[in-house]
Specification:
GO terms for molecular function: alpha-amylase activity. InterPro entries: GH, GH13_cat_dom, O16G_dom_2. It comes from Leptospira interrogans str. 2006001854. Keywords: Glycoprotein, Glycosidase, Hydrolase. By secondary structure, the protein is of the alpha/beta class. It has two domains: 205 residues, Alpha-Beta Barrel (TIM Barrel), CATH 3.20.20; 53 residues, Oligo-1,6-glucosidase, Domain 2 (Oligo-1,6-glucosidase, domain 2). Helix content is 26%, strand content 14%. The chain has ten helices and ten strands. A five-stranded parallel sheet has the order 1-2-5-9-10. It is globular. The relative contact order is 0.11.
Length: 298
Amino acid sequence: MTSKKSTSKKKSPNQLDKWWQKTTIYQIYPRSFADSNRDGVGDIPGIISKLDYLQDLGFETIWISPLYKSPQMDHGYDVSDYYSIAPEYGTIKDAEKLIKEVHKRGMKIVFDMVMNHTSIEHDWFIQSRSSRDNPKRDWYIWKDGRGKNKPPNNWSSFVTPKAWHYDSNTDQWYLASFLDFQPDLNYYNPEVKKAMFDVLRFWLKKGVDGFRLDIFHAIYKDKYFRDNPFRFKYIVSENDHDGYFQSRVHTVNHPNNFAFAKELRSVLDEFDGDRFAVGEVAGDDHIIKRYLGEKKMA
């Protein structure tokens, strides 16, 4: 009898044996893609009606921009409930049907997942901003200012020169790496991490094949809240997120992000079917590579 050792073939490091390494992906923005009931807004039944068309074009995977309940102040990237579907798009039943119809055709489906921040209308933030001693207070990033009308430090958001926003109700500032209605979650709080991993599990159980992780390189920030150093660069670009005259050394690609990527990978590995995650990250090649590899995001 031939031993397994003598018959096994060593895989080439360049061998593409994962579905996500060789698939073709079509991104869908639900609001404008296909409107099934002619109310002027795209919806999930509309997406389902176009699956055969997308497959005929040669696409094997669809990536859906956020479908979750949201005030839609930033195209759904301001989530108010991760467990509900935006009513203008449909229902949970519609989402479940979409996943089944995609798989029926031998295709894959990837959901956009916004983990860095929520909407100010999310119940977590409503509780968090209600008082300093609320149990959800530490679910977001709150700090005292440096003085009257002075934010805690010099951090800028990715789209405006300021990342801190004053809340008169509790006389503190909250951090928002994008816009003021998108407060950042505090991943130094283990309850936050568990809550968001449970969100992933919820959708993985429903059959989602993976996630595109929005602004993943900003999940963790410097817990000492040190100022970002000056850099002579104002405009933020796709591959270089420094801007507004600062280098984001304390707010982007924090060392804890790489450990977090491993933890997230372990959540995906709880499920069969070779689940997939790709993070939105920017930086030098040697930094990007730290997110990749065995037991990491991809």
